[in-house]
């Protein structure tokens, strides 16, 4: 059994390589009874600022896992900043003892820092990394990915930078341009239900936004733009092995509301 959270498909692709029983965290978060039992239980998700996304944290805090082998795979694009150690500390806080935590380098979907066309072109040896992880899990390896002082320093630096950001920075993250055709894709890929369409035009409600960027990458008109400089505002990303329907299936909250 593997739980995953994904915005642009990397983590879902990894989950598909690791277990046939896959459950989206954006859906499982609504389970009445969050008690899961299996021979092995995995979590796959991206790192945001070297840490686990808020939605995944909420799920891990609320859920109970009964398994002899709990593992976590953290997908990242450039610098994991000690993500395995930070995740281990977080899990311990929630009373979860992980046997295995590893990081998996994939395309970086963070638009302010990276050009998606360039990211697509870099060979990050994903298949080789996945093969190692698959073998490790098959062999029930006990392992937490090592973290260096440079990783810890990078995380401290990131936290200091974040603390200096204006409080309303996140509520002004996106804007919808006149290119919007009201197709509603953003309303279906958002795991937090932050979009409505009014008068055939998308409206972003930043309240619950976890800045996963699923919306901005999925918009077929590129009508969602960041209110900060992007490396390449004309390029968006979705894992090449994952369809937009799979992202919708993973994150769609509207069927919950109906
Ligand atoms: C808000 C945000 C923060 C991110 N922070 C980091 C980070 O600290 N380090 C890193 O290497 N990648 C970072 N990334 C990149 C993603 O972790 C990476 O592209 C991941 O594989 C995306 O997974 P997904 O396609 O399943 O959503 C960040 C992405 C977003 C959207």
Tell me what the structure shows.
The protein has 258 residues and is α/β, with parallel strands linked by helices. The protein folds into 2 domains: 2-161, Flavodoxin domain (Rossmann fold, 3-Layer(aba) Sandwich); 170-257, 2-Layer Sandwich (Alpha-Beta Plaits), CATH 3.30.70.20. It is built from 11 helices and 12 strands. The chain has helices spanning 10-18, 25-28, 54-62, 83-93, 116-121, 126-138, 149-163, 185-189, 214-218, 244-251, 254-257, and strands spanning 2-4, 22-24, 35-37, 41-46, 64-66, 70-76, 100-105, 143-144, 174-176, 195-198, 201-204, 224-226. The strands form 4 sheets. Strands 2-1-4-6-7-8 form a 6-stranded parallel β-sheet, sandwiched between helices. Strands 3-5 form a two-stranded parallel ribbon. It has a two-stranded antiparallel sheet with strand order 9-12. Strand 6 (70-76), helix 4 and strand 7 form a beta-alpha-beta unit. The structure holds flavin mononucleotide. Flavin mononucleotide (FMN) binds at residues 6-11, 46-50, 75-81, 106-110, 211-213, 239.
Report mean pLDDT, rounded to a whole number: 96
- What letter string, H or E per element, gives the SSE order? EHEHEEHEEHEHHEHEHEEHEHH
Number of E strands: 12
CATH superfamily of the largest domain, by name, is Flavodoxin domain
Q: Name every ligand kind in the structure.
A: flavin mononucleotide
Radius of gyration: 18 Å
The CATH architecture assignment of the largest domain turns out to be: 3-Layer(aba) Sandwich
Q: Roughly what percent helix?
A: 25-40%
The assembly state of the depicted protein chains is: single chain
User: What is the class of the largest domain in the CATH system?
Assistant: Alpha Beta
Q: What sort of overall outline do the alpha carbons produce when their principal axes are compared?
A: globular
Q: Uncertain segments of ≥5 residues (pLDDT<50)?
A: none
Number of domains: 2
Strand % is: 15-25%
Specify the structural class: alpha/beta
Q: Number of helical segments?
A: 11
The CATH topology of the largest domain: Rossmann fold
Distance between the termini: 28 Å
- Physical arrangement of strands within the biggest beta sheet: 2-1-4-6-7-8
């Amino acid at each position: 059994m593997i739980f995953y959270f994904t915005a642009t498909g990397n983590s879902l692709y990894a989950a598909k390589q690791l277990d046939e029983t896959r459950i989206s965290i954006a859906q499982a978060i609504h389970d009445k009874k969050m008690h899961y039992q299996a021979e092995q239980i995995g979590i796959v998700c991206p790192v945001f600022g070297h840490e686990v996304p808020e939605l995944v944290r909420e799920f891990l805090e609320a859920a109970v896992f009964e398994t002899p082998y709990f593992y976590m795979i953290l997908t990242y694009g450039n610098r994991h900043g000690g993500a395995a150690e930070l995740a281990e500390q977080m899990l311990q806080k929630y009373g979860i003892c992980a046997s295995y935590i590893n990081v998996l380098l994939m395309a970086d979907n963070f638009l302010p820092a990276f050009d998606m066309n360039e990211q697509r072109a870099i060979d990050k040896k994903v298949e080789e990394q996945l093969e190692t992880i698959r073998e490790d899990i098959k062999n029930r390896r006990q392992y937490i990915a090592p973290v260096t002082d440079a990783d810890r320093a990078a995380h401290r630096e990131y936290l200091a930078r974040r603390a200096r950001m204006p409080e309303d920075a996140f509520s002004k993250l996106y804007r919808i341009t006149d290119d919007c055709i009201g197709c509603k894709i953003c309303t279906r890929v958002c795991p937090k239900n932050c979009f409505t369409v009014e008068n055939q035009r998308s409206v972003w409600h930043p309240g619950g936004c976890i800045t996963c960027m699923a919306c901005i990458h999925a918009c077929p008109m590129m009508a969602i733009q960041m209110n900060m400089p992007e490396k390449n505002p004309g390029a968006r990303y979705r894992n090449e092995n994952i369809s937009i329907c799979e992202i919708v299936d993973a994150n769609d909250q509207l069927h919950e509301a109906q």
